[in-house]
Amino acid sequence: MTCCSDNKDKNGKGTRDKVVLAYSGGLDTSVAIHWLQETYDVDVIAIAINVGQPPSNDDIVTRALRNGAIKSDFINATEEFVSDYVWPSLKANALYQNVYPLSTAIARPLIAKKLVEVAKAEGAKYIAHGCTAKGNDQVRFDVGIVSQDPNLKIIAPMREWVTTREKEIEYAKEHGIEIIVKKESPYSRDENLWGSSCECGILEDPWAEPPADVWENTVDPEKAPNEPEYIEIEFEQGIPVALNGERMDGVQLIEKLDRVAGAHGVGRIDHVEDRLMGIKSRETYECPAAVTLIKAHQALEGMTLPRDTIEYKRGIEQKYCQLVYDGLWFGGLMEPLQAFIDKTQEFVSGTVRVKLYKGSATVVGRKSPYSMYDEGLSTYAEGDVFDHKSATGFIYVWGLPGRTAAKSHGKK
Ligand code: ARG
User: Fold this and answer.
1) What is the C-alpha to C-alpha distance for residues 234 and 251, in angstroms, rounded to an integer?
2) What is the atom index within ligand 1 of the atom nearest the CA of 96?
3) What residues does CATH 3.90.1260.10 cover in the chain?
4) CA of residue 70 to ligand 1 center, whole Å
5) Tens digit of pLDDT for each residue in 10-60?
6) Which CATH architecture best describes the domain 18-174?
7) Which of 82, 161, 328, 370 could be disulfide-bonded to 323 (CB atoms 3.0-4.6 Å)?
């Protein structure tokens, strides 16, 4: 891998240990560049990774260089994000605690992977990230990084340097750090292609209905169009390949579906969830494409998979969600679980029709060349091919353990 834009500066470049910083251009990671140099006497390589977060209109790479990083880069990882993280999780119908599509969580191992790649290419000894001490993301980064390279050391400035927004702005002024101070928001947000997360502020009261300003990417269902919209999603082996008959790549498909479903208020989630650190937290999510695709995918599985596969897979899916949520992407149980899930998708191909209407995405039709739905077997009308006489024998055998138990235990 080649990295990055170079800084021709005075920081004793090349003589100090290097740290690769997961950099967003935000306040925390901008001041972290200086803080890392000052506290650890290291050269900082600031790496931003595009997983589909909203683009910022300032050039964060050159700003990192002006703020003292010896190198900086913006790595576009959206395609890899979809093919290697989002689609595998869709095949698993991944909804943590049956509710949250893991949109933040699923991007973390990819970011960790990219940071490790840069650290290797640059011979860096450290990786730094801006996570705090109470969240899941620090675990996902730290564990993700050491599971790929146990020799790397992790620095989390926000875990060590317990600070406030005001103090950080003050620190930036003091050291001439260029920051873009956004309008202060009560919320903490994270966003990528698979969805956005929002916590803090009034959301910390789990009884309070999320106010309108929490939602940024979806239309209020009450204000959504009065006419429903029907869409068709085509899947091949569990992966969406076309929307309304038009084939497109994964990034495009998710972006388009986000707009279409989001315009109908689909994908708003309000959840009190269990963090890995043992803390319950209240968070809202907006994931129009994820919610719609998971529903459609489940419906197609319902038509193409045998009952015991579906039921067994539900248990696997829960475990899968837990591993993703808990930051255990690399090594361990993940690969064998994913292998099982992939194998189940062999026949999950076909088209699902979904009705979008005032906050809901409802599956209203499905078809597949591998459908196990047999109208001749299921019909109560003309054309029935089921052998009705076979039912009596089947029920005799099926009920035999119950009959035997009743005879024997019923004596008591
Ligand atoms: N609770 C979610 C998770 O751990 C999302 C966290 C996102 N962070 C945020 N600042 N909203 O996966």
Assistant:
1) 15
2) 12
3) 188-305+347-367
4) 30
5) 455 558 999 999 999 999 999 999 999 999 999 999 999 999 999 887 899
6) 3-Layer(aba) Sandwich (3.40)
7) 328
